[in-house]
Amino acid sequence: MAPAGRLCCAALLCGALSLCSLRAAPRQPDTLYLWIDAQQARVLIGFEEDILIVSEGKMAPFTHDFRKAQQRMPAIPVGIHAMNFSWQATGRAEYYYEFLSLHSLDKGIMADPTINIPLLGTVPHKASVVQVGFPCLGKQDGVAAFEVNVIIMNSEGNIILQTPQNAIFFKTCQQAECPGGCRNGGVCNERHVCECPDGFYGPHCEKALCVPRCMNGGLCITPGLCICPPGFYGINCDKANCTTTCFNGGTCFYLGKCICPSGYEGDQCEISKCHQPCRNGGKCTGKNKCKCSKGYQGDLCSKPVCEPSCGLYGTCVEPNKCQCKEGWHGRHCNKRYGASGLSTLRPAGSKNRQHTPLPKRAEEKRVPPESNYIW
């Protein structure tokens, strides 16, 4: 049986269940828990992890719109004859249960559901198993409708949990004409091959088809219906239920988790990977690696770029702005005070450079008083 179909069975039997959690959370005192243990989960969904159904006295969110989802859920497959549920009351709190109805509406196909505990009693303080059985009569093929109505009360007699009103569940019973049986409304033909209804496929019609496909770990349990894991929602579980603020351009993709751009890390992308911040508008793109904006260079984008350069007699102080040494001026600090036009230096990097001898000290004394001239 497909994991999605098995999970659906668990949902149907509880009356309103979904994957509240796939992890065994720490038990809180004075409250109530109901879950499918790892061993039963392996039979239902193919891997061993506890599936929480009631956590801290509250049902899974699936109960809020159970009637709508129930209309689209398939019947419990042929291969599932009983299901085990575990429950426990923690601390000193007392909880009482009562099965109000265990009733088959198609007694020619299936007898009344069975349970392995009294119809009325106390929820045990030690983790215990409740088994619900589905006794197909084997007289005819078909889908049997049945009711399982249970309430749970606190010590004051107030109902705190119950199966949704008028909830009806379905069980497929089939004679062994097709090995393994046909599920989800499939019909075993004269060639002993399952003919599947629209939206299902597989040797036993055990696989549902969702278009678009379920994303982010969602399970397709019936055509067009995905069960989403915690933190996701949408028709195909494509949307994240985010309450976390992601900084520095991060994107929330899961409850409390952010996808960070390169150069940032942390739960909210609040930590830069550059130990020293990038300057002059540079962006951190990796560990101690900056991507500089136009006009700057260097590990921290702290060095301005002048094109052409400021030559031997100037320093680049801003993008394309030179600060000249004493006695020199010009945009590229290539002009000397008191020199004729023939002795003017060309910008660094130009062709056919002309060598100009350095001025003598005596000549330097006659240089005009302006100094540190910025063009």
Automatic annotation (TrEMBL):
Subcellular location, record wording: Secreted
Record region (Disordered): 344-375
Lineage: Eukaryota, Metazoa, Chordata, Craniata, Vertebrata
CDD domains in alphabetical order: EGF_CA
Family matches, as InterPro entries: Dev_Signal_Modulators, EGF, EGF-like_CS, EGF_extracell, WIF, WIF_sf, Wnt-inh
Keywords: Developmental protein, Disulfide bond, EGF-like domain, Glycoprotein, Repeat, Secreted, Signal, Wnt signaling pathway
The protein, known as: Wnt inhibitory factor 1
Name of a matching Pfam family: JAG1-like_EGF2
Domain EGF-like: 174-206, 238-270, 271-302, 303-334
Occurrences of domain WIF (ranges): 34-173
Disulphide-bonded residues: 178-188, 196-205, 242-252, 260-269, 274-284, 292-301, 306-316, 324-333
Gene Ontology MF, one: signaling receptor binding
Endpoints of the signal sequence: 1-24
Task of the protein: Binds to WNT proteins and inhibits their activities. May be involved in mesoderm segmentation.
GO cellular component: cell surface; extracellular region
Organism: Lonchura striata
PROSITE patterns: EGF_1, EGF_2, EGF_3, WIF
UniProt GO BP: Wnt signaling pathway
Domain of life: Eukaryota
Subunit note: Interacts with MYOC.
